[in-house]
Design brief:
This protein is of the alpha/beta class and 296 residues long. Helix 5 runs antiparallel to helix 6 and helix 6 packs antiparallel against helix 7. The protein is elongated, with a radius of gyration of 20 Å. The protein starts with a helix and ends in a 6-residue tail after the last helix. Belongs to the HAD-like hydrolase superfamily. SerB family. One of its GO terms (molecular function) is L-phosphoserine phosphatase activity.
Length: 296
């Protein structure tokens, strides 16, 4: 999707510093010149700027002063100028994207199987093992855990910096926001409520007598499902994939990230960072607003 759009149009380049006030003017000018850039537009003083370039994103990315940008902890994004700039659908992963850490790992730690579950989680998000089978094995380890105990953990969920701002700002400009996670609906419902999402999707754990049975309602919401849910929401809203912003960190997010008009890898695992060219590596989720041209 993104590759097709990049073949015959110019680009929008965005630079975003990890900390406000830490974006050097000389580095901005160097990157602008290297990409045949137009006039610089300031999105946040000392933090974020953008400009247009006649070059395609694929052509200009190698021209950026990458070592200097990395040393200064500056994220750089390049997207086709032909696509809708402000996205009308936000599809976001939950764990380590919208919320801090992995919710299932925290639940498992309280149940005494944290080491085993975390190992399976790591292998899954790195793309080393099949997501659905990994999740089934993790949930089986939680068999017998009281749902009330899980609720105590969920009340301590912490959003990543900029998460609520991202959701609220896009909604204020007419976008629909949906949280799509391979985690449990017990968790997505709480995270979606805190961050203010319009809708949420996750896997449903089967419960008997107030405790987890160790089983999931089938079929498992897997990487392909995440992509399809995003596209289904877009269709229902009269939108296309080009109108979508997808953001996530793990291998199970890759189909969704690749399908969206703008897919952003957020503090991503190595395999995801290698596959997705637009990445937020140093900054917070405010960067996803700058990527759409919002001035803050």
């Amino acid at each position: 999707m993104q590759g097709e759009a990049e073949t015959n149009s110019g680009s929008i380049v965005t630079l975003i510093a990890a900390q406000p006030g830490s974006l050097p003017d000389d580095l901005v000018k160097s990157a602008q010149r290297a990409t045949d850039g137009g006039a610089v537009r300031v999105l946040a003083a000392g933090e974020a700027v953008e400009w247009s370039s006649p070059l395609s994103p694929e052509t200009l990315r190698p021209l950026l002063p990458l070592p200097a940008l990395e040393e200064a902890r500056i994220d750089h994004l390049a997207q086709s100028a032909a696509l809708p700039r402000r996205k009308r659908l936000l599809a976001a992963d939950m764990d380590s994207t919208i919320v801090e850490g992995e919710t299932l790992d925290r639940i498992a730690a309280l149940h005494g199987c944290g080491t085993e579950v975390t190992a399976l989680s790591e292998a899954s998000v790195e793309g080393q093992i099949n997501f659905a089978s990994s999740l089934r094995r993790r949930i089986l380890l939680l068999r017998g855990m009281a749902v009330d105990t899980i609720g105590d953990i969920l009340r301590t969920i912490t959003l990543n910096e900029g998460a609520a701002l991202l959701v609220r700002t896009m909604q204020a400009h007419g976008a629909y926001t949906v949280l799509i996670s391979g985690g449990l609906t017990l968790c997505t419902s709480q995270a979606a409520s805190i961050a203010g999402f319009d809708a949420h999707h996750g896997n449903k754990a089967l419960i008997e007598n107030g405790c987890l049975t160790g089983l999931l309602r089938e079929p498992v919401l897997d990487p392909a499902s995440k992509k399809q849910i995003m596209l289904d929401h877009a269709t229902a809203l009269g939108l296309t994939a080009a109108d979508c912003l997808a953001i996530g960190d793990g291998a199970n997010d890759l189909p969704m990230l690749r399908a969206a008009g703008l897919g952003i890898a957020f503090h991503a695992r190595p395999a995801v960072a290698q596959a997705i060219p637009n990445r937020i590596t140093h900054g917070n989720l405010r960067a996803a607003l700058f990527a759409q041209g919002y001035a803050l």
